[in-house]
Write the structure tokens for this entry.
Amino acid sequence: MAFSSPLAIVLLLVYKPDFFLKPLYQLSVISYQLSDLSFQCAVCMVLRFVLCNVQGYKE
């Protein structure tokens, strides 16, 4: 119940700023990794499509 009060949140921000920053940083790293992975998958799909069409290969 103490953590729901604004004073407790302000005290956490003042005395332990990492309490909020670390999870946000970790989420941003995970988000970056997922977007990078999705970009790599998209590039692979495009390359596969192009190579299959160039070679005349049909699945």
